[in-house]
Write a structure and sequence with these properties.
Length: 321
């Protein structure tokens, strides 16, 4: 009884054209969308990894897992045993398999499918003390090379009830708990990756990010550079996750920005007299400790100018002062 592979995730987005451009700049290929959804896949894959549906606001549309052969029947039984009612696929979503809602209301599709075959990647050649695999060949890829994700990695979802969701994905769908940090975050897997689904405690369900695997740490940096050159907003990186040891670079996808006047979970959102007031708010929202970023930056520079949407900021430091 277990799902064995993470096949795709689907989002509802206000502008499918912008979403498609984002993912194509990111290196995914147009998988010939239907009239309902834009479909994108890593190059050389026979299956879509991202589906984008049109809708009023950005949110998770559904997740799709594969449970090949006998596993599929067992997952279906397990869902029935747990009293999880099957639902009709959302409008325009791929037919087939079994459709349910997880305890947070996220639509989940499990299909009788194995992981898509991945095109072979040439092994990474590294030099080390006493052995030289690469001589007079520079280490980083050619600048003009197309950086493309090899495969879908994981998604991270917000949840208001971490334990309930862990129980559903492990107990009913058969995933394994790889790691967790108290009541804050949990990492679940259904294949050999450290995690294919991460769950982060919060005040409401939501989609946080998705992750894709590339060929090397150089490709992460080059992919990030290319996205920045094409005008996409950098998020955070280059960094290394503590638990999975993977290198990461976060890119912010096209979003609505935020209202700086109403940041209850940040130090900057409270009166000068009580810069710690946001601690309680963050705890209430299940957020990690923090919230000092804007306050720190505001005190380091002379001017902090946000654009109207609140998704871009200019830092000004006068050198003659
Ligand atoms: Fe991640």
């Amino acid at each position: 009884m277990a799902v064995r592979t993470f096949l795709h995730y689907a989002l509802e987005v206000p502008d499918q054209t912008v979403g498609q451009r984002f993912y194509e700049d990111f290196g995914l290929m147009d998988g010939a969308g239907s009239r309902d959804a834009v479909r994108l896949r890593p190059e050389g894959h026979g299956r879509d990894a991202v589906l984008l549906y049109g809708g009023p606001r950005k949110h998770l549309h559904h997740l799709c897992y594969g449970a090949p052969g006998e596993d599929f029947a067992r997952v279906r039984e397990s869902l029935a045993r747990a009293g999880v009612r099957e639902i009709d696929p959302p409008r325009g979503a791929p037919e087939g398999g079994v459709w349910v809602r997880d305890p947070d209301g996220n639509a989940v599709n499990v299909r009788d499918e194995a992981a898509p075959a991945l095109p072979a990647d040439s092994p990474l050649t590294l030099n080390g003390p006493g052995y030289v695999q690469r001589e007079v060949i520079r280490g980083y890829p050619e600048r003009g090379r197309r950086i493309a994700p090899r495969k879908l990695g994981h998604v991270l979802l917000f949840t208001p009830d971490l334990e309930r969701l862990i129980r559903f994905y492990t107990g009913t769908l058969g995933m394994k708990l790889s790691d967790r940090s108290r009541g804050i975050i949990a990492f679940l897997r259904c294949n050999t990756d450290h995690h294919t689904l991460a769950l982060l405690s919060s005040h409401a369900p939501g989609f946080h990010h998705a992750s894709f695997q590339v060929g090397s740490v150089d490709e992460i940096a080059m992919g990030a550079m290319r996205m920045a050159e094409r005008g996409w907003q950098p998020g955070w990186g280059l960094g290394r996750h503590v638990i999975g040891s993977n290198f990461v670079y976060y890119l912010r996808d096209p979003g609505p920005g935020f209202n700086r006047e109403n940041l209850q979970h940040a130090a900057v959102g409270h009166s000068q007299g009580n810069p710690m007031a946001h601690f309680d708010k963050r705890q209430e929202l299940g957020m990690r400790p923090g919230g000092f970023g804007i306050l720190l930056v505001r005190n380091l520079v002379d001017e902090l100018v946000y654009n109207e949407r609140g998704n871009e900021v200019i830092l000004i430091k006068y050198t003659d002062r």
